[in-house]
Each structure stands twice: as structure tokens, then as C-alpha cells.
Amino acid sequence: MNFLDGSLFPENQEKLVITAAPYGPEWIPSDFPEDIPVTMEAQIQKAVDCYEAGASVLHLHVRELDGRGSKRLSMFNELIAGVRKAVPDMVIQVGGSISFAPESEGAAAKWLSDDTRHMLAELTPKPDQVTVTVNTSQMNVIEQMDVRDIAGTSLAEPDGFRAYSNMVVPSTPSFFEEHVRRLSAAGIQSAFQFYNINSYETVERLVRRGVYKGPLVMNWVAIGGGMDAPNIYNLANFLRAIPDGSMLTVESSMLNTLPINMMGIAMGLHVRCGIEDNLWNQSRTAKMTTVQQIQQLVRISREFGRPVANGRDAREILKIGVFYDTVEETLAANGLAPNPKGGQQGFLRKAA
């Protein structure tokens, strides 16, 4: 991704797409009862509130009435249908890690089988996106958290701490190649979750081999614990690798969330916020609801002079529903160099 003269001028940037992650599957309702919806009606209303505050993408997880994260696809279908009816323009992004929450007290957080995860391609009504992880990695979401971030919450309890600090993302080629094929066949966009430059490079190879033929829509996940660290050096290194035609959202955790998002806003990237990522204001004097976090980003973006995307804008920026017929078309649309032909060397950025 290149930054030329004028790249930081708002008139040369896309409208800001804000992704809201309001369901916080790692928390239990008592961790933040004011902002963790439990009933289906409350979960639908939370999506409406986020959209009205300025978020155009909803990162969706579902809770059962007992407050635990749901693993029932029927619950996902019900919530997707409710959100689609209430805010039809909002982009619905289902979190592919639908098993974040332990099933019972003291149970280790674990991911579902590949067969079950593939069933996300069969959700009805279908979501616009499903997040796709690439390459197996540690996912210690607590590693870069301060002890004050989790004090008094379920993550500070021994069972919760152990479960969420020992999570592993199982994503081998046999899983993610088949997964993107099934999602594409269903007309669902793969929203790639990149933890470092290596996971991006794997997806570029999928594109070059014709496994994935769609827009490169991605999150740079900077939470440590096996993912990138939230700093400008890692971000800049990642940006230098990705093509100009891609769409990148930046994501971090706790008090790193706001500064990383501010960098993203300034550079013309896109942002994510919500209680799944952060519970606090920057002084840790009070918890912030997802809606308050969205409103903060809207204010900051307007100060930069960058308009905020509505749902229709976001669908155009994300190229929802767009797929390509050939490898060559996919490479060109994403701003990638064509596959080399005999005798061709170098890092071409357009066809010779």
C-alpha cells in the first residue's frame, strides 16, 4: 500500500468504515451489565444502536439467555434475521471463532471442529462476511492487557485467565482453503484476520493459485499474544506488503485500541471498536460502552475532516457481493502484480 503526496488529505481518502464489536464473547454479563445484551431483542437493539451511532459493520456473536456465548447456528440465524430487518444496510460480519466462550464453568475456551466451522457458510439468512483466520497461531488475548484492565472481571478469575491466555487458533490449509471455497460459493465474503505479514502472504498465494477470487478485505489484528504488537513499526511493515486495491481495518485491544484507531483514521484505513476489544476510557476511570466508543471515533474522524461511511457506503467500499472469474482479474482488481510468466523477474505492479 503506497502513500503518495496528498494521501493524508481527507478528500483523497475513502469514507471511514467503523466496525462495531459489541457482543464481547470473552466477557460474562456481570463484567459490564450496562452494555452486554443477553436477550435476543436486546442483541438486535444493540446492532441498531451501533448503526445509529455511526458503525456500518457489525461483528456478530450471539449469547444464550444464560449469558454464555451461543454455539447454536439457529441462534446465529435468528440474530442475523433480526439485525437484517432492523438495519438492512448494515454489513453483517459473523465472527468465525464462534466458540470463544467456554461452554460451562471452568471449561477451557476451545474452537469447534472444522466441519462445524464450515457450517457458517450455510447460515440463513446469509451474512455479508465471515471472518477467516489464516495459519495456526497462539491467541493469548490477555498477554498485553494490564492487570487493571481485567481487575474485577471474569478474566481475572483463575479459570477465565487460564482459558483465554492459552487459546490457540487452529487454521491449517485443509481448513482455510476449504472454508473460503465454501464461503465464496455461498456468496459470502471472506474477511481475513491477519495476525502478521506471514498470514497475509499465505492469502496472496491463495489468490495467485485461484483458491480465493474476491476482494482483499482484511483486519490487522494487533493484540500481541501470538499476533502483531500494536506499534507503528509493525503497522508500517504490514502496509508495505499489502496491495493498493485492498481494504484494511486496524484492530487492537484495551487502551491500545484508540491510538491504533487514530493512526488508522489519519492514514485512510478503517477501524474497529467495541467491548470485545476494550472496556475502558483512556484513564481507566470508567468503562465505555460500544456506542460511546463509536461516537468517540466519529468525533475524531470529523476533526480530521474525514466523513464516516453509512451502510451503503461501506458495502461499496468493501465490495460486498463482488467475486471475480479469473486469477488475473482478481490480481488486477486488488492491485497485485500479475503472476510471472517465463523470463519475467522483479516485483511488477502492473502488466508489462
Give a structural overview.
The chain has 352 residues and is an alpha/beta fold. It has one domain (12-101, 114-330): Aldolase class I (TIM Barrel), CATH 3.20.20.70. 35% of the residues lie in helices and 12% in strands. It is built from twelve helices and ten strands. The strands form two sheets. Strands 1-2-3-4-7-8-9-10 form an eight-stranded parallel barrel, surrounded by seven helices. It has a two-stranded antiparallel ribbon with strand order 5-6. Helix 3 links the parallel strand 3 (91-94) and strand 4 (129-133). Mean pLDDT is 93; it is low at 99-103.
Describe the SSE topology.
Layout (H helix, E strand, L loop, with lengths): L17 E3 L19 H14 L3 E4 L12 H14 L4 E4 L19 H5 L10 E5 L3 E2 L8 H4 L7 H8 L2 E2 L3 H13 L3 E6 L2 H13 L7 E6 L9 H10 L5 E6 L4 H11 L2 E4 L16 H15 L6 H8 L8 H8 L18
Helix pairs in contact: 1-2, 9-10
Could you give a short description of this structure?
InterPro entries: Aldolase_TIM, BKACE. The protein has 352 residues and is of the alpha/beta class. The protein is built from twelve helices and ten strands.
